[in-house]
């Protein structure tokens, strides 16, 4: 083959290979559209992919070289541009450039922005009322681009108005667009629906537009009317009477009712929010004009009624000077208030069927004025008066008073109280007990009404400390400090009755101390004091004894102390102290050792004089200590009392 032909063939092959490679290398963008629409605040992803190139190089930019407000993520043969969130500044033509060796490819896609995130809002200028114009506003908030917006307002299935916004936006901004419709509701509109429908045409092709719709039920109101009042029994009343007034009013929604009284100033004093107003025990000052109002959201309607309350006055009033106590005098008063003319008034007081007192007021009335008149009497109630009835009867015999009653009366049932009495206390098993025992103290008291029981403990200052309101006071395991005076009181509104009981808790003797002073070992001729002290209460009997061949010899002791003057050898031996009371006894012993002197000659040394004087002083001190100790712990004399059930 000629060389020239070989060269031509080689160049052709190379050109063919380059053409084949360039045909295999291409770039695509997803979404596979030339233009996409995304809403402000959403997220958008643009993916650029390369085929026919193993190691492509990607870059993104906007057509106008504006800042790229997104994040780029490259993975192999794809590159993704993520914009989150989307805003007005992201509305651009985006260009993806891919380089593969010496080759370069580009692909573009346009991102257009819109805002249509909220449903329309329906607002009424006032509550819809039959026959009165009302303006309905249908608003679409935060819309862009509004030149592609269309709003339609419907009442039921009927279109009331359609509005398009064709003027172009001068700036990129979200705006609120609305339409207004004014109409006068009718009865047929009740229960109808108001519909506000918004359509945004953002697509240029045959794709459907975006629609949002809000529906609101039309609540049509009727202002209150035909308000009426019924009065029972009458608008003309007597003092002490009751009256019921009922008000009705028509409207939609059903009006709520307000009852008021017109004051002298012309203002209204609210009395009730119920349809029915009941006034009881009326007085002359209750006379006046009463106003009923039917009220709803769109209006009010009122009706007035005039009440006249006439005298002769209210019923008599029965008062007592104090509670009724059997045997105690009480004054009863029968008052007739605000009477006129009182010079013809007669008052009678009955107890049961028996008249107790009557009084006629014959004095002239010096002026025309309402006055209170009364009679009083004192009597001594008994228990037989209980359930009897006091009757106060007032008569005013004036024939020309057409509307006033001729008489009025009041009654009061008597309840006679009996002051507490015969209060007793039952103690079981006894009021004198051994520590640790249980005891029940039950109190009873007679009276009317039945007295309330109150248990207290008397303190050292004489005051009472309340401890129980039960009839029975129980100590499950007594202690010595529970000893004392307990007081039971029977109490009712007529008086108080009390009873006392003294509780004594005994303890067996303990803590005995038997001592020899100055020592348990002395010399012949010394003075020795044998002393026995019991530290617990109640008082115990203390006996000092000395052991002899035939038994124990009781010593004559003073305050538990026995003094040996000039001790002899025969004074040596065992001494014993016995402490006993009703509950038990306790023993203590000691051994006294008396040593003989070296010489039997009588002598009187200065040392003996000092010892003798000291012994005398110590003896006196021990005596005083013993006296005060026994005074504090063993107050009073001890007597044996048989422990048995006691009734106080």
Give a brief rundown of this model.
The chain is 8% helix and 52% strand. The chain has 648 residues and is mostly beta strands. The protein folds into 6 domains: 93 residues, Immunoglobulin-like, CATH 2.60.40; 101 residues, Immunoglobulins (Immunoglobulin-like); 89 residues, Immunoglobulin-like, CATH 2.60.40; 89 residues, Immunoglobulins (Immunoglobulin-like, Sandwich); 89 residues, Immunoglobulins (Immunoglobulin-like); 115 residues, Immunoglobulins (Immunoglobulin-like, Sandwich).
Description:
Helix content is 8%, strand content 52%. The chain contains 2 helices and 47 strands. Strands 2, 4, 7, 8, 9, 10 and 13 form a 7-stranded mixed beta sheet that branches. A 5-stranded mixed beta sheet has the order 17-23-22-19-20, with no helix packed on it. The longest helix is centred in the C-terminal third of the chain and has 28 residues, at 606-633. The protein is flat and about 145 Å long.
CATH topology of the largest domain: Immunoglobulin-like
Provide the CATH superfamily of the largest domain: Immunoglobulins
Query: Quaternary arrangement of the chains shown?
Result: single chain
Strand runs, count: 47
Q: What low-confidence regions span 5 or more consecutive residues with pLDDT below 50?
A: 1-21, 399-404, 600-613, 625-648
Corresponding CATH architecture of the largest domain: Sandwich
* Residue-averaged pLDDT: 84
- Counting structural domains, the number is 6
Number of helices, where a helix is a run of at least 4 consecutive DSSP H or I residues: 2
Distance between the termini: 157 Å
Shape designation = flat
CA radius of gyration is 59 Å
Biggest pleated-sheet summary: 7 strands, mixed
- Helical content stands at under 10%
Kindly name the structural category. Answer: mainly beta
CATH class of the largest domain: Mainly Beta
The amount of beta strand, in percent, is over 45%
